[in-house]
Amino acid sequence: MSVIVVTGTDTDVGKTIATAAIAAVESAAGMSVVVYKPTQTGVTGDEPGDVAVVERLTGVRGEDGVRLSAAMAPRPAAALEAAALPRLQDHIGRIRELEASYNLVLVEGAGGLLVELTAAGESIADLAHELAAPVVVVARSALGTLNHTALTLEALSHRGVRGTGVLIGSWPAQPSFVEVSNREAFAAGAVPLLGAIPAGAGALSRAEFCARAPAWLAESQGLSAAVPSLRSMANAEELVRELCARIDAHSWDTLAELLHPDFVCRYVHTGEVLRADDWVRLNAEYPGFERLELLDLVVSGDRAVARARIVGGSHGSTEEFQVASFITERDGLIGELTEVWADVGAEPPEGTRLH
Description:
By secondary structure, this protein is of the alpha/beta class. The protein folds into two domains: 2-230, P-loop containing nucleotide triphosphate hydrolases (Rossmann fold, 3-Layer(aba) Sandwich); 236-343, Roll (Nuclear Transport Factor 2, Chain: A). Helix content is 32%, strand content 31%. The chain contains eleven helices and 15 strands. It has helices at residues 15-28, 50-58, 74-80, 88-99, 124-131, 145-158, 177-187, 206-216, 222-226, 236-248, 276-284; strands spanning 2-8, 33-37, 40-41, 62-64, 67-68, 104-112, 135-139, 163-171, 193-198, 259-267, 273-275, 289-300, 303-314, 317-330, 333-343. The strands form three sheets. A seven-stranded parallel sheet has the order 4-2-6-1-7-8-9, sandwiched between helices. Strands 11-10-15-14-13-12 form a six-stranded mixed sheet, covered by helices on one side. A two-stranded parallel ribbon has the order 3-5. A hairpin with a 5-residue loop joins strand 10 and strand 11. It is elongated. It starts with a strand and ends in a 12-residue tail after the last strand. The relative contact order is 0.12.
């Protein structure tokens, strides 16, 4: 139900071990996690790749979009063996399928942010944009990393993609003065420093790796602070119940926190389509609204259907209505909402009755 993209400032910065650490932490928190690697290069036949490393360290399974034998960028690697690269929409389709079965899909890129994944020249940045997914940037600790990381974050921002945190991929046992200074600079930056993974963590046993991973992501309250949906809104049921509670409490100023940036609400009975700000305003200014009571809730994956009773009053009289709401969760937030309203004592319009 959520997607996080893991990219790096360069190749060999520790993306795979960082992905494994995130997978270990979120699995321990009760999330069902899967890893998707759009393009795995440098492997032949059944030779294990990056997803196999994640599974060895954490038990979290994964899959590749395509596997290529040459250890180089995907486009030239594919050209060497006359292989066809999946289209961006192919990757998106598979990730959405995985979303339907897992709480969290971790998408690990190849190389740096702008390495081309498709024959059309699209990159992991384009994939993150189309998925509307936050991005974790894995960075080096050594000299030069501040510039490389700033360039990566700027490229994300330029494309309208949220850099949700920086993670140092390999932190030495005896860091230099420069490395300590770089870490302090990351910690003071606008994008949260999620933590640092110790050098050699990939050689640990699964038990040791999973036990230690939460401490590695403990800075700035870790990933759960950078992506609040991972904890506070781990599934569609919690999301819908929280939405109803806030409406019932007239907490209009906090409703927008639950809505995806691309949120859309459709009203079947009027044909209106509202974006987030207009929908919040409509609820806040609805004449005579008193309370909302959630009556029924059915959830399947990232979709939910709720039935609620609305109580209000006007001109000294109390009125009751019922509303059926069809909700789609996206990235831990409400992405789409369709509402069907009916008077309790009246026959609803043709085609709006649930069977």
